[in-house]
Design a protein that fits this description.
The complex is a heterodimer of chains A (562) and B (234). With 562 residues, chain A is an alpha/beta fold. Chain A contains 21 helices and eight strands. In chain A, helix 12 packs parallel to helix 15 and helix 17 crosses helix 21. Chain B has ten helices and no strands. At the A-B interface, helix 9 of A face helix 2, helix 4 and helix 8 of B.
C-alpha cells in the first residue's frame, strides 16, 4: 500500500496539473473574456461607486462560474467518457484521490477571477471610484466561481456525458436570469443578485445585500458539492459515511446562512438612508466655492467631493457669460433615485414605518418645484461627463439665469409638468448661452429622429406647437425643468451665427427686460438686427411630407409664467 | 495475390435493397440515437419552465422564457448527429450519412413535442382575458427551428474534422455563442428579433438561416469519406 505522505504528494501533484489544465481551458478563458466585457458594459456609463460596482464584478463572474462548471465536469468525467476507467484502476491513485485532486484543482479558476478583479479595480480607480472596495463582496465573487467548479466536479463524478455539464450550468444559471421575477428578500438566496437600487444609494448600506452571509452560503454550497463528489467516488463505506456527515454539516451551514440573509435591514440604518436621500440640498452637505461669477451652492453627498469639478465646468461656463447674479443663489444638488417599493430593502418592517419613509422621501426638496435649484442624479451622473449631460446641466443653469423654472417638482419626471416659454425671448437666450458654454453646434441638433435631439408636438393652451428636445433631455441625469421650444431653438441658432460680443452686448444692455418673460423672440431678433426665423407648424417625415399628429396623442403642457 | 473486392458502400445495390434494409436501419437508428441526452435536455428545460409557471403568480411568462428554456434542448440536439464507429459504418452497404440524418429525423418529434409543451405552459400563465393580445408564435417557431438547425449544422461540420469526438460539445458552445451574438448585437438583432423586426421579416430571416443551416448540414454529412478502392492489389 502506498504510504500516506506519498499519496498526499501525488494528490497535490495531480491537483496542480488539473489546476493548470483548468486555468488554460478555452472555456474558462472565454468565460473570463465575456465576464470582462459584461463588467465593462455594466459600469462604463456611470461614475464608479464601489458599493455597487463590487457586486457588478461578481455579476460578471457568474459567466466564469458557468464555464468553470462545464470545464470541471468535462475534466472529472474524462476517464469514464474515454472508456479508460479500467486502465485508471491499475494506477496507484484511487478514484477518490483523483476526485480530491479535481476539487483542489478548481482553485486554479480563482486565478482568472483575480485577474478580472484586478483589471476591474484598476479601471474603477483610474475613473476615480467613490468609496472603497468591500473585500467580503469581492471574495464572494471568487467563492461563486469555486462553487461552480465544485458542482461541476460533483456532476462529472456521477454523469460522464458532456451534456450533463451543460445542463448543470443551465440549472445554475436559472436563478441569475430569473431573479427579476421574485419581488422579495428571497432573491438574496440566489447565487448572485445585484439589486438595481444599489447605484442609487448615497453610500454603502449594511445588509443590502447581505455580503458576509451570502459568501458563507456560497462556500457551504461549494463544500456540499465537494463532499458529495468525494462520497460518490469513495471506495469504502467508512469514509463515505464521514463525508455524508460533512455534507450534512454543509447543508446546515447553508440553512443558517440563508436564515441570516432573510433578516431585515435594521431600522436605524434605513432611517439614516432615507434621511440622507430626502435631505438633499440641506446645509450640512453644501459648499460655496469662492471664485464663482454668481452665488452657487454645491450640495454633494459625503464622498462625492471629487465630482465637484465635473459639475462646476458647465455651470461656470454659463455664468461667465451673464451679468452679475450674486444677489440670487443657485443650488446644484445631488439627488438619489431611491424608492421604497423594493421589498428587499424594506422587508420585515411595518407598513406604517414604510409609509412614513415614503412620505419623507416624497417631501424631499428634489420633489418640490423650484426656480433656484438643479438636481443631478447620483446614480446616472457620468464619470467623465458626456457631452449631452454637460449640455443638459448647462441648459438648466441658463434657465436659472434667465429666470425660468429649473425643477418641475416631481422626481418621477412627468413631462406634462414642464412649462413651455412660448413667445418668450429668454428661451432662445438660455439655449444660446448653453451653446456658447458647451461649444455645441446648434445647427447639427435639428435631428428629427430624436436620437439626440429634435422636434416634438406639444399642446399649450389648446394650440399645438413644436417643442425642441435638447441633448440629454431623455438621459434623466438632471431633473426636468423648462421644456425648450422649436421657436427658441431656431432663434438661438440664428443668434449663434452672429459675433458673440455683439449678442452679449445686446443682452447685457437690457438683461432684465430680456429675461422678464415679457420680451418676445421677435423683439430680440429685431434688437439683434436679424429676422425671426420661420417656425415649422408640424413634423417633417420621410420624403419631406408633413406629419399631422393624431388628436389626443399630443401631450398637454402649461405655459411658463412671466 | 489478388483479394476479392470488398463490400462497397456506394455504387449499384441489389434490387429491393432499401426495402429490406429499411426495417433493420430503423431498428439500428432507434437503438443508437442518444435518447437519454436528448430527453434529458428537453425535459430539463421543460421542467424548469413548469416550475417557473407554477411560481409565476401575477407575472405571466412570455416568449423570452421559452427562448431560454429551449436552449438545453438545442444543446442536446447537438449530440444527436454523432456517428459512433464511423470506420465500421463506412464499410457497411448503406451510406454513412443515413445514420446522422436518421437520428436527427428521429429527434425532430421530441423537439416538436418539447416546443409544444413549453408554449402550452407559457400560455397557461397568461390571464384568460389577455390571451388575445399575445404576440404571434410563428416568429418564435422560426427562431427555434433556426437555432436547432444551426446546432445540427455545426455538429455535422465538426464530425468531418479530427475533433469528431467532441462535436456535440463544440456545437453546443459555438451554437450558444451564435445565439448570444444574434440576441445582443444591435446590427443583427434588428433583423431577427420582434421588435424591432416585424414578425413576418423575422420569420423569413430565421427560415432563411434554417434552410442555409440545413443545406450546410446535408453537405457536411454527405458520404464522401475515404473509400476502399474497387480492387486492392497487394
Amino acid at each position: 500500500m502506498t504510504p500516506r505522505p506519498a499519496r498526499a504528494r501525488a494528490t497535490l501533484r495531480l491537483a496542480q496539473i488539473e489546476a493548470a489544465l483548468l486555468t488554460r481551458s478555452i472555456l474558462v478563458l472565454a468565460g473570463l473574456v465575456v465576464s470582462g466585457i459584461l463588467v465593462w458594459f455594466s459600469t462604463y456609463r456611470g461614475q464608479p461607486l464601489w458599493w455597487n460596482d463590487a457586486w457588478v464584478i461578481g455579476y460578471g463572474q457568474t459567466v466564469i462560474s458557468l464555464t468553470v462548471l462545464i470545464a470541471a465536469q468535462l475534466a472529472t468525467a474524462r476517464v469514464r467518457r474515454d472508456g479508460l476507467a479500467e486502465l485508471y484502476k491499475s494506477f496507484p491513485s484511487s478514484v477518490g484521490r483523483r476526485t480530491l485532486a479535481h476539487l483542489i484543482g478548481v482553485l486554479g479558476a480563482a486565478l482568472g477571477c483575480l485577474v478580472l478583479i484586478g483589471a476591474a479595480t484598476s479601471v474603477f480607480e483610474l475613473r476615480d471610484a467613490v468609496g472603497t472596495p468591500d473585500l467580503t463582496v469581492l471574495t464572494g465573487g471568487v467563492v461563486l466561481v469555486l462553487a461552480g467548479g465544485a458542482i461541476g466536479v460533483a456532476i462529472g463524478t456521477r454523469f460522464p456525458h458532456p451534456l450533463a455539464g451543460v445542463l448543470g450550468a443551465f440549472v445554475w444559471f436559472i436563478p441569475f436570469s430569473q431573479s427579476n421575477r421574485f419581488n422579495s428578500a428571497i432573491v438574496w438566496l440566489f447565487p448572485w443578485v445585484k439589486p438595481p437600487q444599489l447605484s442609487q444609494l448615497p453610500g454603502p448600506l449594511s445588509g443590502y445585500p447581505p455580503a458576509l452571509a451570502h459568501t458563507v452560503e456560497l462556500a457551504a454550497i461549494a463544500a456540499l458539492a465537494g463532499t458529495v463528489a468525494l462520497a460518490i467516488s469513495a471506495d469504502a463505506r467508512r469514509p463515505r459515511v464521514a463525508l455524508l456527515g460533512g455534507a450534512a454539516a454543509a447543508l446546515a451551514a447553508i440553512v443558517v446562512a440563508c436564515a441570516v440573509q432573510l433578516q431585515p435591514i435594521p431600522t436605524r440604518d434605513l432611517d439614516h438612508l432615507v434621511g440622507e436621500a430626502a435631505n438633499t440640498g440641506s446645509a450640512q452637505h453644501c459648499a460655496t466655492p469662492a471664485a464663482t461669477p454668481a452665488s452657487v451652492r454645491y450640495c454633494l453627498y459625503p464622498g462625492f467631493g471629487s465630482r465637484l469639478s465635473s459639475l462646476q465646468g458647465p455651470v461656470n461656463a454659463v455664468l461667465a457669460q451673464i451679468p452679475d447674479q450674486r444677489t440670487r443663489t443657485l443650488t446644484i444638488s445631488q439627488t438619489s433615485g431611491l424608492t421604497l417599493d423594493d421589498p428587499t430593502l424594506t422587508h420585515g418592517h411595518s407598513p406604517q414605518q414604510v409609509t412614513a419613509w415614503t412620505t419623507q422621501l416624497a417631501n424631499a426638496p428634489a420633489n418640490l418645484p423650484s426656480s433656484s435649484a438643479i438636481y443631478v442624479n447620483l446614480g446616472t451622473w457620468p464619470a467623465q461627463g458626456q457631452a449631452n449631460v454637460r449640455f443638459d446641466l448647462a441648459l438648466a443653469t441658463a434657465d436659472w439665469a434667465v429666470g425660468l423654472p429649473t425643477n418641475v417638482g416631481a422626481r418621477t419626471s412627468l413631462q406634462s409638468n414642464r412649462c413651455m416659454p412660448l413667445e418668450q425671448a429668454r428661451d432662445a437666450i438660455a439655449i444660446w448661452l448653453t451653446s456658447q458654454a458647451t461649444h455645441a453646434k446648434l445647427t447639427l441638433l435639428r435631428n428629427t429622429t430624436r436620437s439626440v435631439s429634435g422636434y416634438m408636438p406639444v399642446q399649450v393652451d389648446g394650440v399645438t406647437v413644436l417643442a425642441w428636445v435638447y441633448p440629454g433631455q431623455d438621459a434623466t441625469v438632471v431633473t426636468l425643468g423648462t421644456q425648450t421650444t422649436a421657436a427658441g431653438y431656431l432663434l438661438a441658432t440664428a443668434m449663434a451665427t452672429l459675433p458673440t460680443q455683439r449678442v452679449a452686448a445686446v443682452l447685457a444692455a437690457g438683461w432684465d427686460t430680456w429675461t422678464s418673460g415679457l420680451a418676445t423672440g421677435t423683439q430680440l431678433a429685431a434688437a439683434l438686427g436679424i429676422t425671426m426665423p420661420a417656425v415649422p407648424t408640424g413634423l417633417v417625415g420621410p420624403g419631406g411630407r408633413t406629419i399631422t399628429p393624431q388628436p389626443g396623442t399630443v401631450p398637454s403642457q402649461p405655459q411658463c409664467p412671466t | 495475390m489478388t483479394l476479392p473486392p470488398p463490400v462497397m458502400s456506394t455504387g449499384s445495390r441489389p434490387r429491393r435493397f432499401w426495402t429490406r434494409a429499411l426495417p433493420v436501419l430503423v431498428k439500428h437508428l432507434t437503438r443508437t440515437t442518444p435518447w437519454v441526452a436528448l430527453i434529458a435536455g428537453c425535459a430539463s428545460g421543460t421542467l424548469v419552465l413548469a416550475v417557473m409557471a407554477y411560481f409565476a403568480g401575477h407575472t405571466p411568462l412570455n416568449q423570452d422564457t421559452v427562448r431560454f428554456t429551449f436552449l438545453p434542448a438545442v444543446a442536446a440536439l447537438a449530440y444527436v448527429p454523432h456517428v459512433h464507429f464511423r470506420p465500421l459504418v463506412q464499410a457497411m452497404p448503406v451510406p454513412t450519412w443515413i445514420v446522422s440524418a436518421g437520428q436527427t429525423l428521429l429527434a425532430v418529434p421530441v423537439l416538436a413535442a418539447t416546443c409544444w409543451v413549453q408554449l402550452r405552459l407559457v400560455t397557461s400563465t397568461v390571464p384568460a382575458g389577455s390571451a388575445g393580445s399575445l404576440p404571434a408564435v410563428y416568429p418564435l417557431l422560426a427562431q427555434l427551428t433556426g437555432w436547432s438547425l444551426l446546432a445540427v449544422a455545426i455538429a455535422a461540420c465538426c464530425e468531418r474534422t479530427r475533433y469528431a469526438a467532441l462535436s456535440g460539445a463544440i456545437a453546443t458552445t459555438a451554437g450558444f455563442a451564435l445565439i448570444a451574438t444574434a440576441s445582443y448585437t444591435d446590427a443583427i438583432k434588428r433583423h431577427l428579433l420582434t421588435p424591432p423586426a416585424t414578425p413576418h421579416a423575422a420569420t423569413t430571416t430565421w427560415y432563411a438561416i434554417a434552410v442555409s443551416a440545413l443545406a450546410l448540414a446535408c453537405l457536411a454529412i454527405r458520404d464522401s469519406w475515404h473509400r476502399y478502392a474497387r480492387r486492392l492489389h497487394l
